[in-house]
Amino acid sequence: MTAAAPPDVKRVGARIGVFGGAFDPPHNAHLALAKAALEQFKLDALYIIPTGQAWHKSRALIEPQHRLAMTRLAFENVPGVVVDDRELQRAGPTFTIDTLQALQAENPQAQLYLFIGADQFAAFKQWHRWPEILQLAIICIADRAQSMPAQAQFEAYPGDSERFFTLQLPLMPVSATQIRQLLASGVATAGAIATLVPEPVALYISQHQLYRSR
Ligand code: ATP
Questions:
Q1: 26 Cβ below 6 A of ligand 1
Q2: Which residues of 89-121 are buried (b: 16+ CB within 10 A; e: fewer)?
Q3: Whole-prediction pTM
Q4: Is 33 helix (H, G, I), strand (E, B) or coil?
Q5: Cα of 89 from ligand 1 centre, angstroms
Q6: Dihedral of CA 123/49/45/8: which sign?
Q7: Cβ(136) – ligand 1 distance below 6 Å
Q8: Strand-strand pairing, 45-50 and 15-21
Q9: Does residue 33 have a pLDDT over 70?
Q10: Whose Cα sits closest to atom 13 in ligand 1?
């Protein structure tokens, strides 16, 4: 199979989306969010960026090479997606501001859009240098079951309302935590996992026996 041509993001006015996550593992809500982002924001490219050891996750993530491989498999058929491993290459904690600044420097003509779930947005003011993130990128939020709706959270940013948008996405109760727990419990059938993650990811998890309790 020939690789798709890299998206053209160098031109003036290009729209670049950024969607980071532990992707431990990537699941169907991540995929739905990415597709909605590309379509609703008419993105020229969507950078999917697996995090290194994210500063805000105390839990140890599984090995970076597994998360990267699964992320590539999850998004392989989505035109416009670029899976970018720069945060996995970085030593120490990963900060979104560093990644956004690097992407902006590489594409000075582009407008950046940062996509996050409402659970992450609730903690946004604890993010490293968040006011600079707000200046660099337009923040697009997907509502999430059990998190305060994005619209209700916008009140915390008076004067910045033009920097925030809600992504139109039906609530999807799936989480990576739930998938890891199901696998660790040993009761999850292959069929159950296949309803929560893209098929090639389910296959990869099974082949590599990931998330089983030892
Ligand atoms: P965990 O359960 O381990 O915390 P997660 O399911 O939240 O993982 P992450 O990789 O941490 O997955 O999420 C990456 C991004 O995707 C975050 O911005 C998160 O808010 C968003 N996201 C994850 N699941 C959903 C979902 N079901 N609906 C909307 N956004 C989601």
A1: no
A2: ebeeebbbbebbbebbeebeebbbbbbbbbbbb
A3: 0.94
A4: helix
A5: 22
A6: positive
A7: no
A8: parallel
A9: yes
A10: 21
